[in-house]
Amino acid sequence: MRVNVNSRLVDEKEAPLSGFTRLLRRLHIDGPLLGALLLICAFGLAVLYSAVGENPRLAMNQVLRLAVGLSALLVVAQFPPDFLRRWTPWAYAGGLILLVLVLTSGVVTQGARRWLDVGIRFQPAEIMKLAVPMMAAWYLHQRSIPPRLGQLLLLFIVIVVPTVLIAKQPDLGTALLIAASGIIVVVLAGLSIRFMIALAVLAVPGAMVLWHFMHDYQRQRVLTLLNPDSDPLGAGYNIIQSKIAIGSGGLFGKGWTNGSQAQLEFLPERDTDFIFAVIGEEFGLFGVLALLGLYVFVIARGLWIAAHAHDTFSRLLAGSISLTFFVYVFVNTAMVSGLVPVVGVPLPLVSFGGTSMVTLMAGFGILMSIQSHRKLLPH
Amino acid sequence: MSPLSSIKDHNYERRLFIARVIFASFVASLLLGVVIARLVQLQVLNYEHFAERAQGNRVRIEAVPPIRGLIFDRKGRVLAENRPAYQLELIPEQVDDTDDTLLRLAGLELIEADDIGRFKSLIVSGPRFKPVTLNLRMSDEEVAHFAIQRPRFPGVDFRPRLIRHYPNGPAIAHAVGYVGALSETDLEALDPARYAGTGQTGKTGVEHSFESTLHGDPGYRHVVTNARGRVITATSNELLDSLPLDAQPTPGSNLFLTIDLDLQAVAHEALAGHRGAVVAIDPWSGEILALVSTPSFDPNLFASGMSTNQFNALQEDLDRPLFNRAVRGTYPPGSTIKPMLALAALETGATNLTRKTVCRGWFSLPNSTHRYRDWRPEGHGPMDLHDALEQSCDVYFYEVSIDLGIDQMHTYLDQFGLGQTTGIDVPGERSGINPSRAWKQQAFRNPSDQRWFNGETVIASIGQGYMLATPLQLASAAATLATRGSRFKPHLVAAWEDTMTGERTLVSPERLADVDIENEFYWQTVLDAMQDVLQGARGTARAVGTGAPYSMAGKSGTAQVFSVAQEDEYNEDEIEYRLRDHALFIAFAPVESPQIAVAVIVENGSSGSRVAAPIARAIMDRYLEADNAR
């Protein structure tokens, strides 16, 4: 990064800066984005408190995770995009090595090998959630877009290798999100529409191949989605109960902590992947739309930041982070309302669980870094 | 690094990117629209359906058992009631170490060590949150004892409930019966819908025969349950609101028995130490005034649950306390049937009032050397019908029986109700045997056994041989003698009362066919002789009847348990107690306007007039002196 000593970071409306705005600017924080995120977190925390049966210890646990996530956001926001870009290949390479290590010597929990234990336990896949789009953006940053066919092949490898490694853990949900985050970079970089259509046509035989490689439980999930009532007490139970929860919420919901499906434990995984059903039950359609509205605001603000970014890396990365966040929201809500098969994708910033929270917040930290380190022309 | 020659067109790249962002936003909006459409479909269009399913998930209908009707005696004294009692319960999910807890409870003697295995399997088989009952009925001492120790037993507690209580215990157990835990077999005979939530049912006595009257109808209530079926009772929020209305249970009707508790107690006391039975009847209505069988048992043991050991002890007791001798015990009636045979002989002309027999102490059939003995070895001398009844001369009846014949004997005893159930309203009644030629043909398979012998007629005339009767049948026959031929069906239940409306349903006496002997003079003769049994100068039971302030009539009977061989001397002391003769007595009083008829049997009591008659006297005294006279 060339630093122009004479240039200052300025805004068109510099004059009436309040103390608060100045503090946000010094901390490299984007106010609107942070505000929306905090609203989501606060709403999510309230829902979670209800979903865990008003257990204060579990709610406190989530508060701590939120604090860690916000700290990560704050820290990441301090690094300028150029710095992040320079470290991207290293982060990506390191992430790949860790993924291989997981497969060879990871900790097995619930039949899946997802964790590395090096003093603290963490999921290397989480690193890849950011490293994959960064790597793709890094690669395209140095080239003219739209990418050419050869370049696409390389990008394909960049995306597919970590995706396969994670799918093998197995963690289909995360693999899906990581592939999406990489593909989004490529699409935003101007992948030709015709090419996309061709891929879509190829997706049918691809799906058949995928089916072949899927685990039984994954196949079961697909079949269950197609006909949940075929196994109402087994695999279909989750979907049936979550549909009952959402549907019985009606327009206004049953009220906070009054959802019978959630409180009486009919709804499985109500504090993690299926927490969206709790919102639907207790806050009704209006509550759900309010939350979706906040999500849309966050995504729109992210895309606005991407559109105003000054270089390809920043643009593609910011766009990918924003749209991947949308994929999160879409897959989770569609899965809980019975539109797509059950894949382990949490509702971002609301579901109980710490690992994805930190990654998500770090991603928003990158967005803020991109927004706040933008070089503006001097007067 | 790409060569510098490919100069980047920043403006173009930015425009391309923004176009792609717009494209992506469009796709995202489309997808989001699908989700929102789905939510509208679930939450608005199909709201009713899902709201109903959510309700169906959480609300369960639970039966509320009715309160069982009470049982009173004829004067309104409580015979069976429902009492609060404490039961000891263990909630599996709240107990860390089940084995240790059970062992410590056994150590405190709150449960029996023998039952630990049973409790363990109960605990393992049920849901973790469902309480397992360890002790159905804790004594006051046990409650106090446990209350102190309670902190040491997390997950174990006592809980109040209503249990059936029989304040008079053994004295009336065989009439009232008892309730016990509902079994699979019981449920087959009962309406499962009415018994949802009921744990006990009447097993014997009127508790059993009037089960449907006493039980009542269950109500129901709606309860909220969670996914595992646990009933949610206390929550601070609205989960419990908006439940449909509950229905209160309808309590069972109260039952009023014809039994007089005082009389019952006197009879029970009089039989104390004996194996035997007493049945007392109001002759003009068939109302049972007392129905006692001894030894008895404590019905509270069944109602509140007993240990396996206690139950086995009752089952295996040689004196058979659970056996209702009054309605199920069949005994040779002995000489107690002589008044009925006398009437039959008079009516058929087999004898007449002037006929006299000289009793030498034995009787032989023509062309036979076999001697049928009189109970009095030296004989009674010259006997007419009155004397033969008063002194219970066997030889007179031996002779008359040949003229009367077994089939006519059967016909008239049948009219007095022998050989058939009386239809009393307690379960398990036996019919006894009133033999005849036809009966013998049916009873025996081997043709040579089916023939009737005159010798069998001879011993039937003193109520021996095949003849068997229950104490209830003898009491009913005594009542029929008292009324001079009018018969009423014996019954124990006088009325029942709807506990909600207070409306009473009375059981009216059921008159049966009269005995077909219309000559009042015959009745008078026989009844005079029966009165002389107790109050005449030579009556067999004159020691019992003399000096009474009222007139009474009776007939003793002494039934052989086994046959004494021809030449053996009969020696009470040498034979085992259980092979001694049964002592019987039937009686009624006052003779001119009978109010009570009694049958008493004392197993191995040896002598009807010496052992059974005083018991009958005590009962009649109590009833007539206690101002029961109508």
What does this structure look like?
- The complex is a heterodimer of chains A (379) and B (630).
- Chain A is built from 14 helices and three strands.
- Chain A has a three-stranded antiparallel beta sheet with strand order 1-2-3.
- Chain A starts with 18 loop residues before the first helix and ends in a 7-residue tail after the last helix.
- Chain A has helices spanning 19-26, 31-51, 56-78, 81-105, 124-141, 149-167, 172-188, 193-213, 216-226, 237-249, 260-263, 275-308, 312-336, 355-372; strands spanning 107-109, 112-118, 120-122.
- The longest helix of chain A is centred in the C-terminal third of the chain and has 34 residues, at 275-308.
- Mean pLDDT of chain A is 85; it is low at 1-13.
- In chain B, 36% of the residues lie in helices and 18% in strands.
- Chain B contains 23 helices and 23 strands.
- In chain B, β2 (71-72) and β3 (78-90) form a beta hairpin.
- In chain B, α10 (261-270) packs antiparallel against α23 (608-625), α14 packs across α16 and α16 packs across α19 (454-460).
- Chain B is elongated and about 155 Å long.
- Residues 1-6 and 563-568 of chain B have low confidence and may be disordered.
- The interface between A and B is large, with 54 and 47 residues.
Mean pLDDT across the residues of chain A is 85
Fraction in beta strands of chain B: 15-25%
Question: What's the overall geometry of chain B?
Answer: elongated
Biggest sheet details of chain A: 3 strands, antiparallel
Q: Please tell me how large the radius of gyration of chain A is.
A: 21 Å
Please tally the helical runs of chain B, counting DSSP H or I stretches of 4 or more residues: 23
Radius of gyration of chain B, rounded?
A: 37 Å
Overall pLDDT of chain B: 86
Strand order of the largest sheet of chain A: 1-2-3
Q: Low-confidence segments of chain A, ≥5 residues, pLDDT <50?
A: 1-13
Q: Which stretches of chain B of 5+ consecutive residues score pLDDT under 50? A: 1-6, 563-568
Main sheet of chain B, how many strands, which sense, barrel? Answer: 7 strands, mixed
Helices and strands of chain A, in order, run as: HHHHEEEHHHHHHHHHH
Count of β-strands of chain A: 3
DSSP helix count of chain A?
A: 14
Question: In percent terms, what proportion of residues of chain A is strand?
Answer: under 5%
Structural class of chain B: alpha+beta
Helix/strand-derived category of chain A reads mainly alpha
Please estimate the helix content of chain B.
25-40%
